């Protein structure tokens, strides 16, 4: 991606990520959705780090690629636990928080082991390739878990509209990233197109969450019938 466009999209994404935290503080839901906001705050710091490396070494440099993939793996893990926190919010009346946390750790450990098993057979640089593959695998795991959570939300008698907005936007985000990774794996020529898509996709989640925290009342509820009708359109 051209340098000016990279800087512009990076700046836009950083502002939107910071806006999410500001909106959460304004609505007094920072503590309730702490991990989601922690993810956005980490995104802001990572963006500053990427900008620093980009300006000193260039977007096509090996240093930038290392920093990008390592930081992306870290952010993906935090976002994964943010998704688990949404599971806990949905099922909090069932008192299954402990089991969800244990299951999340086991699933994450299994994903890391599977990623290592695949990477260990490769001739690529081990740590860099592991970070890339781990992010890719966690996006697919997150995609499946998000739609499982969405199916559970549809079964509930009443659901918070804010929670629905957070889950749906996360599903779209995971779907877009999973699709971009799939395209880049199909053929090397697709990588150039994906490099344009990924920064834009990165702006969608903070934009959606900022809107949710700013405009969607926490006390608002949606019925399962209305959710099903919206999902089928």
Q: Can you walk through the features of this model?
A:
With 233 residues, this protein is mostly helical. It has a single domain, classed as Rhopdopsin 7-helix transmembrane proteins, CATH 1.20.1070. It has 8 helices and 2 strands. The protein has helices at 3-27, 34-57, 62-90, 97-119, 126-155, 161-186, 190-215, 224-232; strands spanning 159-160, 221-222. Strands 1-2 form a two-stranded antiparallel ribbon. Helix 1 packs parallel to helix 7 (190-215) and helix 3 (62-90) runs antiparallel to helix 4 (97-119). It is globular.
Separation of the first and last Cα atoms: 34 Å
Overall morphology: globular
Mean pLDDT: 81
SS strand fraction? under 5%
- CATH-derived architecture: Up-down Bundle
CATH class annotation: Mainly Alpha
How many DSSP E strands?
A: 2
Order of helices and strands: HHHHHEHHEH
The poorly predicted ranges are none
Biggest beta-sheet profile? 2 strands, antiparallel
CATH names the topology as: Rhopdopsin 7-helix transmembrane proteins
Structure class? mainly alpha
Number of domains: 1
Radius of gyration: 18 Å
| Strand adjacency order, main sheet | 1-2
Number of separate helices? 8
State the share of residues found in helices, binned by percent. over 70%
